[in-house]
Amino acid sequence: MSDIDTRNGVTFYKLEWDTEFFGVKCAKAILHKPLTLDVWTELKLLFKEYQFISIENQNSDPINAQLIGKDTPAFLADINIQFVKYLEEKDEQHLFNNITLHHSLKRNDKIVEMADFQFSKFTADIELANRGGERVYSQWLINSFDKPNKYFALSKDENEEINGFLLYSYSDDACVIELIAVSQRVPKSGVGTSLFNTVEHSAIKNGSKIIKVGTQVRNLGAVNFYHKVGCRQVGCHQIYHLWNL
């Protein structure tokens, strides 16, 4: 089986990590534009080869939404908001003494313990939740330790205890924020903003042109945070889950 050519409006591929983690054959379909009936028919045939398919309907296209709703039992599991911030050199950069940057960071269970994210399609979907969905973000972090292409910004309090982290990576000319969390012990402390600003400064020095990040539309705290730090919304993608069990 080969991927559907993206020029036809679809990218389709097997999710290797998800297949191993959840114990079912997983795939992902990204719908880049309104699909023709011929392409949609071909795609539905591919769906039958997998037990779980994540369907990303980019820009929440209404034609694709109707095809999915009419022809499949898939359900809307998430609406993903994509943000970018265009980076420019600044005359002054405010650096935070309590923030340190690391790559190839050794495993730190204090960081893993912070991966308690309220909004997650992996727990909202009962089938994924029953297959260990609550452990996805913890495993994501564990898999990111000791990796030279993964970077951590860490915030520490006056007692040198970690009270926040930001996991990020680089792709072409973009700095990609993967996960960010602040300890519940320090609500509204500005730790998140300090982490973001420090990573922004590092990304500029690295030659990145933009910062990219996504979050769930239900996560109003995160949506408001990214607006506050100067990001702007560039996408709103529906995520459907299709099960063939």
Element layout with pairings:
Elements lengths: L9 E5 L1 H7 L3 E6 L5 H11 L4 E6 L4 H10 L3 E12 L12 E5 L5 H5 L7 H4 L1 H5 L5 H9 L6 E6 L5 E10 L2 E9 L8 H16 L3 E7 L3 H9 L3 E12 L2
Parallel strand pairs: 2-3, 8-9
Antiparallel strand pairs: 1-2, 3-10, 4-9, 4-10, 5-6, 6-7, 7-8
Question: Can you tell me about this structure?
Answer:
By secondary structure, the chain is α+β, with helices and mostly antiparallel strands. The chain folds into 2 domains: 6-72, no CATH class; 86-235, Aminopeptidase (3-Layer(aba) Sandwich), CATH 3.40.630.30. Helices cover 31% and strands 32% of the residues. The protein is built from 9 helices and 10 strands. A 10-stranded mixed beta sheet has the order 1-2-3-10-4-9-8-7-6-5, sandwiched between helices. Strand 8, helix 8 and strand 9 form a beta-alpha-beta unit. The two termini are 21 Å apart. The mean pLDDT is 93.
Rg of Cα set: 19 Å
Supply the CATH superfamily name of the largest domain: Gcn5-related N-acetyltransferase (GNAT)
Name the strands of the widest sheet in spatial order: 1-2-3-10-4-9-8-7-6-5
- Name given to the CATH architecture of the largest domain: 3-Layer(aba) Sandwich
Main β-sheet description: 10 strands, mixed
Q: Strand share of the residues? A: 25-35%
Query: Into how many domains do the coordinates divide?
Result: 2
Count every helix, treating DSSP H or I runs of 4 or more residues as helices.
9
Low-confidence stretches: none
